[in-house]
Prior knowledge:
4-stranded antiparallel sheet; 211 residues; alpha+beta; 9 helices
Amino acid sequence: MYRKTREEGFGDEAKRRIMLGTYALSSGYYDAYYxxxxxxxxxxxxxxxxxxxxxxxxxxxxxxxxxxGIGEKIDDPLAMYYQDLCTIPVNLAxxxxxxxPGGLSDGLPxxxxxxxxxxxxxxxLRAARxxxxxxxxxxxxxxxxxxxxxxxxxxxxAAPGEGRTARDTEPSRGAGRDAGCSGPRTAPRSYGxxxxxxxxxxxLPSTRAAQ
Length: 211
């Protein structure tokens, strides 16, 4: 029973990861691989903790590339592992994160990942909703401009969005007004993340009292 479930019930990738994990935890390689990985994990947690002392939300791509064809990379395990690059630090640090639609690139959808500190899931969901609403507004403005033309709308009236400044239509600032943050700021670059806004969200009392 044990042999059949492991041999027939697991796919090639599951078997590959089991073998790699068994190898890394073996007595001769424990210190060389697992112990070192634990040290790296601690550094990642410390970096996130330092970032969240200044900011509420970090944002990054969900994946380093746009969607690829079904089965296109199935024979290249390293290319498949590369797709997890932006989400692995979140898992290692044990922090909440959410992926939302972030528009299109070359006609393909792009996911945007928002991350927040431990036990701030409610605030993270509010920030994600604000970002989604801002992105939807920006998409509607672009669609209106494409339909009516950039130089003017029907009967000589300005097309929707014309005359507005970049600040009025910039998604991050729109999200900031809705969610209560003060707009984009310079972000820590250790993992390719960017800051969505400064600390202006209403924190959970239990998580901020010590600070």
